[in-house]
Input
Amino acid sequence: MYAVDGAFLTQRVSGIQRYSLELLAEIDKQIRPGGLELIVPEGVKAPPYQRIRVVEYGNRSGMAWEQLDYPTYLRTNGRLGLCTCNVIPLKGFRGIAVVHDVCYRARPDFYTTSRARLSAAWHKLQYRAIARTCQQIVTVSQFSRRELKKYYGVSPDRVTVVPNAWQHMERIQADETVFSRWPKLERGKYYFSMSNLMKNKNFPWVLQAAKHKPNTIFAIAGGGDLAAAAGEKGLQIPGNVLCLGYVSDGEAKALMANCKAFLFPTLYEGFGIPPLEAIACGAPRVLVSDTPCMREVYGSHADYIELDVNHGSVDDVIPGHDAAGVLARYSWEKSAGILLDLLRRTDTN
Output
């Protein structure tokens, strides 16, 4: 039997945690009662699953719980492990890991501060451990599957693609109050993006795009004081750029639904879920970077930014069409079915 590393329930929800939550919710509908366990630290509240068995074990937290308590549970109870967030216990782990991307290995130039280099070193250690010890690896795209082979020599036979999806956006109620708090945002007349200062997000491109259209508002959502952080790095924020700070899921849905276009000029992703979420929310147009991963995920359903020749113009793009057509390609239900089939085929207990 497999037992899932539930440490993601103690973390703020971003793309990786969302992936874990949505897959388990769908697996809970498809699995036999008690056919999968979710192991969490003592006192951590889990979703109200009907068939997945939730087990509280160990009173440590953070990395200590994941590296000590969780593998102790696996060993003493004879369980295989399922880790969904790029990290496994470094000693004695048997099971499956999800590697969302290998950006830390593929683009070391993105990580220049002491903290970023430390994070990169830890994740590269994890990638090597996963490649060496896991009987099977899950990733989110064929692009990331190729990257695992390129950088870690992982045979494609050991890698199963279980993509992201978008149906969680259907449960979110759009919060239109964001427009009263930001009166400069006129429906249908602003460009919207979600970003931070991590180099792969390519935040400077959005600033350059805003300079090309000084009479159009560009709204950027991102945790913390993005404008202040940008200033510390010498980036000037044009007057037509609104840094919204952290926005709720409901506010993000309203902003996506009413924008002129959603911008995603990423330099490296394993999948790139925000444009898919934007399409699901009704964004009339998405602009994504012209990279192999984005081409795989979005095909002809997006407009592509040529990063090598485009210096920030939202007009200088390779046009796609029928953005809504991409939604039929992905669902959490289908992805959960792929993962559940893998668990059943590899359960040696």
Observations:
- The longest strand covers residues 190-194.
